[in-house]
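Pipeline run #58 for the internal structure catalog. This entry was flagged by the ingest filter as a single-chain record with no existing model, so it goes straight to prediction. Upstream metadata was stripped on purpose; only the residue string is passed forward. Reviewer on rotation: M.T. Logging verbosity set to normal.
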Amino acid sequence: MKRLALLLSGLLLCVGLAGCGGDTGDAKSGLTHEQLGLVGVDSVSLTDGVTINIDADAMRGFYYDLAQDMRWDFLPHFAGGEAPQQVEDYIYLVLADELVWSDGYNIDNEKTPDSLTAEYVSDYILTHFGVQTDQPEAGSVARVDFDGEKYAYPAGSWSLPPHYELNYLTVSGSEGEPVVYTACMTKYVETGSVLRDDWRDVIVNGTMDEAPLSVEAYLEVKFTLDEDSGEIRYLAVGSGADDGVDQGE
């Protein structure tokens, strides 16, 4: 917790976020509290919860990338302390998270694996949700072929990640406990027929009036960060306050 204590007491007063410029690369690897928004916040105010200023383009851009890279469109919805216990609730999230895209619209079939091992899927669920799942019997798991050792990618196409806009971000915590983040996102889908590659810029720069995008859903994701690995641990996922996001941890 030494790194966290320094962050909380430093009052860095940054306009942007350290380590997250226009191109974040792999936004889900080795995350830091600075990237997630814990900048210029003192530890005392965390006990009551703090709403983070999201005016900086870097903040909106980082969460756009994070939600797309970690495929938040496949997150299972659950209230605090009630994460699903079965592999079938997570399998499409894990598979989608490992897709490699050659560009904005096509999957790179050479870099995307043909299958994922049962051990990898189990470790992913344990890391990100704290759930130790039982390995299912060989057969079909949520319509995904499983031979007892590996889950095969289903035949057919995968949907592109939706577009995300960060509406607000709050952080809270107490002495000796992990800092908890709650991100409220708007999820957009394209309504026009023209393919564009600048959706991220449109959302980050706040020029939504010019874009043929429509609101598909709202998403609230409550999570914490593993201090050692920099991995996200999901605590609750919902479409709003009434969907269980604020019900405990």
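catalog note: Residues 1-26, 241-249 have pLDDT under 50 and may be disordered.
catalog note: Strands lie at 50-51, 115-117, 139-141, 144-146, 150-152, 163-172, 180-190, 213-225, 232-238.
status: ready for reviewer M.T.
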